[in-house]
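Researcher: I've got a protein sequence and the SMILES for manganese (II) ion. Could you write out the 3D structure of the bound complex as structure tokens? I'd like something to compare against our soaking experiments later this week.
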Amino acid sequence: MAENSTFGPPNSDPNFSSTEANRALEKEAQLPLTGWQQEVDRGLELGLEAAASIRDRSIPTFSRGELPHYAGINTFLKAPYLEDVRKVDEYDIAVVGVPHDSGTTYRPGTRFGPQGIRRISALYTPYNFELGIDLREQITLCDVGDIFTIPANNEKSFDQISKGVAHIFSSGAFPIILGGDHSIGFPTVRGVCRHLGDKKVGIIHFDRHVDTQETDLDERMHTCPWFHATNMANAPAKNLVQLGIGGWQVPRQGVKVCRERATNILTVTDITEIGLDAAVDFALERALDGTDCVYISFDIDCIDAGFVPGTGWPEPGGLMPREALYMLGKIIQKAPVCGLEIVEVSPPYDISDMTSLMATRVICDTMAHLVLSGQLPRQKAPDYIHPEANMAVGSEWV
Ligand SMILES: [Mn+2]
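Model: Sure. Here is the predicted complex with manganese (II) ion in place.
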């Protein structure tokens, strides 16, 4: 502080002592550095000690961890790549890519979504200032790579996706799914339902589009996931909540299905008029009515198109990033969440990685709120995973 300053330290100023920023400063002091030290030790062991001229002796010769951010192999957040997916149960969270865009009806490119999200995720540290959380210290995360999708055949891809998601979900690792277009919403939920037994899941769906029609262009496309997901007994339509719907790209045949099945829709105007907290309460009450857990399907195009140009059907007038992130965080704080998918990131249409960055932000905030709400790391398998669930699922899907 300058000698002639008229200001005292912020935390001694009664007008500012209770700011989020001051709380964040205090929270950081409570976080351990154990995981960081392990990363340094591992880097030195596997990456060799640095050249003699390097004064910081925590730096290895070969980059083997978070640093430097521009180096290394691009898994999500530089998490370990888990080649042997049979060991996914050893992690709290498993990130999996679903590079499938054959369900796209206009601008393709979401098959590169997982790569785009992973690439820009290298920009992030595992620490968040105001949340006071350091993922490296508090959970274990792996990147299991991508599901092998079949570009010429949506249905075969759906079977692959359901099998892969079921494998992760049944292991107890929390699945975070990087799309891919929104057609994957049906097979991902089907994979979760495979191991719910008679338990039920409510779907909270952030989107500008309803995605509820039976077919589009004669197939089950990215306009169709919730028609088919809510046909499953484990995922009732009355528990489908759709936040941010509106504009000029909502097919009328999908609207008809929403009306017939009485799904729960809030437009962007609804959300801003009733307020974010009331919108969160609306979503939770309906998604959790008679269900055991919530699955979050986050279409990046729910955000105003100005922030997310890299998507298949950009639509102006969407949610502000702060609004979407606020609602997402509050929902996770208050609901048992069984999985997250982030879809419709199309890097070929992106500018400066901004759409992929938004997706990364959604994922990292989700992980943080899962930890802050005590859902992760898990002490035991959640009740909604069937006790006989195991990773050896069959390949037949209805
Ligand atoms: Mn959409």
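Model: The chain has twelve helices and ten strands. The chain has a mean pLDDT of 95.
Researcher: Great, I'll pass this along to the crystallography team.
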